[in-house]
Hints:
Layout: E1 4-8, H1 26-39, E2 44-50, E3 59-63, E4 66-71, H2 88-102, E5 108-112, H3 114-127, E6 131-134, H4 139-145, H5 153-165, E7 168-171, H6 174-183, E8 191-193, H7 208-215, E9 223-227, H8 236-245, E10 251-255, H9 263-275, E11 281-283, H10 292-298, E12 301-304, H11 313-320, E13 325-328, H12 333-336, E14 343-346, H13 350-362, H14 364-377, H15 383-399
Parallel strand pairs: 1-2, 1-5, 2-4, 5-6, 6-7, 7-8, 9-10, 9-12, 10-11, 12-13, 13-14
Antiparallel strand pairs: 3-4
Helix pairs in contact: 1-15, 2-3, 3-5, 7-10, 8-9, 8-13
Amino acid sequence: MSYTVAMLCIHTSPLDTPGKTKDAGGMNVYIQELARELALQDIKVDIYTRRTDAQTPLVVSVQPNVRVIHIKAGPLAPLPKDELYQYTPTFARHVDEFRRREGIHYDIIHSHYWISGVTAMRLACHWGIPHITMFHTMGRLKQTANPDAPEPPLRLEMEQRLLHHVDRVITATNDEKNQILRCCSATTGRVATIPCGVDLQLFTAHEKHEARRRLELDPHTPVVLFAGRLDPFKGPDQLLQAAALMRQPAQIVIVGGKLCGDKDLQQLRQLAHTLGIEQRVSFVGAQPRGKMPLFYSAADVTVVPSYHETFGLAAVESLACGTPVVATRAGGLMTVVQHGVSGLLVPRWPGAFAERIDLLLRDKELHARMSANARRSVEQFGWHCVALQVSAVYEELVSDGYSLVAL
């Protein structure tokens, strides 16, 4: 059955380069890749995001059946996501105006992150259609993982409200589902676990020495990789501190952020200098997704030292390229990384990371065994399988008797 879906992602565009800003990361990849795969099932997807630049076209056609629509709400400039709540009524009104002008009748609204969820609640009620949300990260779970960084009370309140108003919550792992059921009083029937995905055609292994040559890395020195947003929650500082404790020689490559004017990147540079390892650390900025398989293939180990990950896209991409992962024993990483099989899970402190990275660099037999296991450990996360599960939820909800005609 064919559907028309309105996806909302207010605070960041799926067209933004992952890792370049604090708001562009795995969620951007998830939305774009899911929409592409749904389109192949004859499902039309309009992705609504906030317009932040006057030069950005109103509508960008990504492929047949997929459009990104830029909606004016607030100033035409990037804003911290915690400031966007005040513009959600305006955003909802302009989305509905666009829908009316285009004569579109949506069957499903699918929101991403809590700010979009709040907006989607208004629209779902007005249009009389089911509302699915994916938090990608929940404030309460994030706060539990790092109590020293409390989340805004408004976010906590709105997420709780969403749990009781949406028709389905999609979680990426059973661990996330169980935490939501336990900590947030959600109803079991409202929560569906569907993993995030990975592009198994793009993320494949390249020959290691050739990858290092193309990236201008030393072909003879082991490479330890961090890839992602340079948000302190992601823990790039933990990797630098671990690198200072390591006994095995290695070059540390940090993919993420902007090379100019990025406060987080500048702080990491200063930390590397303070630790006396600046000569071994390369900051290369955010990279196009098409180039990331080279970085994963060039690395001996990918490190994911986050406080918490709902899923852990960098870990999955690395494993798809045959590179073992050392990650925090937390959240979705415990599902993605099979401890002792495709990587190692450790407590989140620099000494533990240093010890396990050293182990993988020193023990060639262990490294080879994990590399051989890596790819097949994530093959079930292909986007085609993910999209089939999401579209099954769409069909279930539409079949439950909602009106398919917008009000």
